[in-house]
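Justification of resources, computational component.

The compute hours requested in this renewal are based largely on the per-chain cost of generating structure records like the one below. Each record pairs the submitted sequence with a full structure-token output. That output is archived, and it is also reused by downstream analysis tasks.
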Amino acid sequence: MMADFLSIDVTGLAELRIDLARAVARLERPRDLMQTLGAVLESNIERRFDTKRDPNGAAWEPLAESTLARYAAQDKGARRGTLLERTGQMRNSLTSNAGDDFVEVGMNRLTDGGKWSIPLLHETGTEHMPQRGIFLADPDAGTLGRDDEADISAELQGFLDDVFGA
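The structure output for this chain reads:
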């Protein structure tokens, strides 16, 4: 007589439970992943300062002649720094912060008197200053650039492969 059911014996159930518990713990507390994503974005932003290009790959607009003249007078004729790095204070303020459900990347450089965020002014542009994207491909939509998206996707895939042993 033929049975109308299938029986499967599972071996290694204890190891499977341990692996699953480890995977669940990593997924419930992904702070390390978030810190890694912050470091990836920081690295990409550092590269933007080196290449003078925004998250879409477009070159940053050069400084206006009036700005160059003002800097030359302030610096007593000695040229200091490069585009968006005259003193290095803004770039040096780049930092990230992460938790289990967030990652923040930013800079804290303010104008003299603390009225305006200098990175924000460059990120969005003003009536008298062109936009020079540092963080986002489109600040209005809050979207990342292609390279940022690809790098984050690769890190996420690596994390999931590690968690699930792929």
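The mean pLDDT is 89. The chain has six helices and two strands.
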